[in-house]
Amino acid sequence: MASSFSILLVVVTLVALLAVGSCGTDFTVHVEKGSCPTKLSLVTNVEVSEVEIREKGSNDFLECKGSGTKWTLESKEPLKGPFAVRLTLKNGGYRVDDAAIPEEWKADSVYKTKIQV
């Protein structure tokens, strides 16, 4: 039969694991005023090393220009949403949300992604 101490140790360990696993920050993207069908100006709530966008129907990610929390993607043709977002974190890891910015996005709107950082 398990001792009370062993059961308590297991419970404390599980609580600690759950607490650590839920400490992430929701990654958000603000599509700034001035964004239009050929230009996305983005501000992220967390500094990252790189932001890439994949248009609907594409297999390739397009690299945004910028740094830190401000990023821009410009195109000669209208960009097609919804947009997947792939970001590279400062520690070198990366995260992807396949539908971070909806098809009917609006300038001066904030979109919460499924990415935890």
TrEMBL record:
Pfam families, alphabetized: Expansin_C
Domain Expansin-like CBD, residue spans: 47-113
Signal peptide: 1-24
Protein's organism: Zizania palustris
Superkingdom to which the source organism belongs: Eukaryota
Protein name stated in the entry: Expansin-like CBD domain-containing protein
Alphabetical UniProt keywords: Signal
